[in-house]
Amino acid sequence: xxxxxxxxxxxxxxxxxxxxxxxxxxxxxxxxxxxxxxxxxxxxxxxxxxxxxxxxxxxxxxxxxxxxxxxxxxxxxxxxxxxxxxxxxxxxxxxxxxxxxxxxxxxxxxxxxxxxxxxxxxxxxxxxxxxxxxxxxxxxxxxxxxxxxxxxxxxxxxxxxxxxxxxxxxxxxxxxxxxxxxxxxxxxxxxxxxxxxxxxxxxxxxxxxxxxxxxxxxxxxxxxxxxxxxxxxxxxxxxxxxxxxxxxxxxxxxxxxxxxxxxxxxxxxxxxxxxxxxxxxxxxxxxxxxxxxxxxxxxxxxxxxxxxxxxxxxxxxxxxxxxxxxxxxxxxxxxxxxxxxxxxxxxxxxxxxxxxxxxxxxxxxxxxxxxxxxxxxxxxxxxxxxxxxx
Length: 390
Fold this sequence. Notes:
The chain is an alpha+beta fold.
């Protein structure tokens, strides 16, 4: 117990966190509206009123005291994001570019692991383990979910992709972390004196397999020209930018809303010839201006889900990684990529779909299950669904 207490104390001391990561309430939305967002450019000009993520959680806890137990979880997530941001920004200097172990390491997805894939996974996993609130952790880089020994009485399950878009690291293109938090579907208590230990552990691990509609929190942290942490707790979406001068995430995007329709589509068109015909016709209509909007869309594709979805969230349009002849289920993982991002977009007024069904409703059958994914503005996603229905 001592090492858990010390670990949690370190996290809280590091961030100066006094209170928690809660669902946004109508009362807290009023707080955001009443206090204007202040940028770092205003600092030094006198008294300022900066809403940091730490302060955001403190204010929100006042309205949601019953949710206070989640405070250490968000403290750990933002600490991990700060650390990963530092590692990414200094990767070329500290020899963290390139493949893990000389290119010989392959993860459970059959993908070559970058050095930062492994390090980022350890950073996030270790930060979350010390909260004492988690029973199970599932990661893209782990073959199976991991029981958190310090938190066997924990109430929550964390799922994450520690470094989405890591293939872009060597080119210094944006990457990101995606995470989701579920409540455990049932009590997860393991008696290590019992003979049926394996069965008890498996029951706990299977609590990871929950649909996106069961998420209680989700977010992403984008590492680019700035580090931006966007998250939702089920009642609105807020974005925070890391201010390197004070080492804190500062509220810069309160109550985020995706435009009803955009003018940008984000697909990997190198796979066009392998797509289903309805999708080909849909994209052709966007390019030629013969779709419902009558506007010609621009193509923007980074190859990092976090970067592409963040742009879609701000400017509208549609992001997609569809299934094709080579990969009928696409390449994005349902549990820790598609579902959390769908939750995020829906909280901003957007929509998500496989083309035929809402992603949030899908019951996962396996931790690394893949699913065709389309996210974005509600009118754009609705038009896509009509194309698939023809």
